Amino acid sequence: SNEGKSDGTVLNISAQGCAITTEHLPSVSAYVSLDIDLLNGEGPATIELAGVRWVSGHRCGLEFIRVRPDMVMKLRAFALLLEQTS
Predict the structure, then answer these.
(1) What is the dihedral of CA 73, 74, 80, 83, to 10 degrees?
(2) pLDDT in tens, 47-60
């Protein structure tokens, strides 16, 4: 089912978690899964399980709890890429 799905924009990201801005914010301590479009043509990184750690305004912070090893590699590579371009 597509209920509870919403689009958001990633503000910052690491292999451990990310901050996003979204219209439909989850509540603190909720659990979510997400597909992050890394914009590098490799398809999205899938986070199977993340916990919502804080909510402020239209932003929330997510801690990644369950991520497949290949997705962790993808996230690490992407985070490194961001550091080099900033």
Answers:
(1) -140
(2) 999 999 999 999 99
